[in-house]
Request: fold
Amino acid sequence: MDAPNGDNFVDVEFVVEQNYSGWRLDKYLCEKLPRLSRAKIQRIIAQSLVSRRPLKNSTLVVPGLSFALRRRKFQEPETPDFVHEIYRDASILVLDKPAGLPIHPTARYRRGTLVTLLQQRYGSEPPVFPLHRLDRETSGILLCGCAPDATRHLMRAFAEGEVQKEYLAICEGAPGRDQFEVDAPIAEGGRLVRIAVRIDRSQGKPARTEFQVLKRFRRDGAWFALLRSFPHTGRQHQIRVHLREAGFPIVGDKIYGPDEGYFDRFSRHCLEPEAWLRLRLPRHALHAALIRFEHPSNKSQVSFQSPLPADLQSFLRP
Reply:
C-alpha cells in the first residue's frame, strides 16, 4: 500500500542480497531492522511498502528484488563518510570500519551507512556485499565479497566456523587471571532492550569466548584492562554480554554496561550527563582487530589486521 508522498516523506530502498534468497519478506526485514518486532514489521509492510508488484509478509524474496519503505522524514544522525580500504582484489574487499558507521540502512540511518559508501565508491555491479556484522559503535576489520562465487564460499565459511576473528576490548575492572573463558548460552531479547541478548542456560544457543589480558591499568582511581577476545561462536553481541557475565563489562557499553536503560534514553537523545560520565566513552570500547580465513580464489590462508584506533589508544593512557 502506498503512503502519501511529498516533502514530508522519504523512501528507504532495499535490494535483496544473494544470501537471503527464499526468505519470507517479513523475516528479511526483521534481519535488516533488528530493533523492530516482527509484528511491527508486518504492519509496516501492510501500510508503508512501495514496490512494482504486490508484496506481502509471506512473499519469498529473490536476489535483486527491490522495494522501499516509505516513512516520514527526520534529521538523520551524522555518521563517518569515509572507510579505509585495507585490501581488495577481484574476490574480496577488506575494510577498516570506523566507529559510528552502521553497515545496513535502517529506519534511523538511510544514507549514512557502509552499504551506501560501498555503492558510491565501487558501484553496484557486481555488488560488494558485507559478509558479517559489526555493531555501529564497533570499529575494525570488515570482510566483503566482491563476486557471487566468492561471496557464497565465504558465507559458508562463516556458517561453518572456519573464519577466525580476534577483537580488542577495554573492560571495567582488572581480571585476576591472565586468561579466562566464558562458556554461556545466549538467547535473543533483553529485559529492557528488544535488540539485546541475554544469558539463558535453558533456551540459549551455545556460545564460548576466550579472553587474554594484555594490560591492566588505573584511570581516575578505577581499574581497567585491555583484553584480546577470541569468539569461538558468532552470536550477536557475544563478547559484550560474555564480559558482563564475567563481571567485566566493556567501557562505554550502553546496553551491557552500568544500566540497560541507558540505551533507550540514548536512542531518544535524552541520556543524562551523569550517565555519560559513568560510561566514560561516547562509544563502547570494542575493536575488530584481526580476521583469518581461506581466500576463496587461491585457497591460501590469509589474515588482515587493524590497529587500535586513536580514541581507544587515548583511553589506555591514564
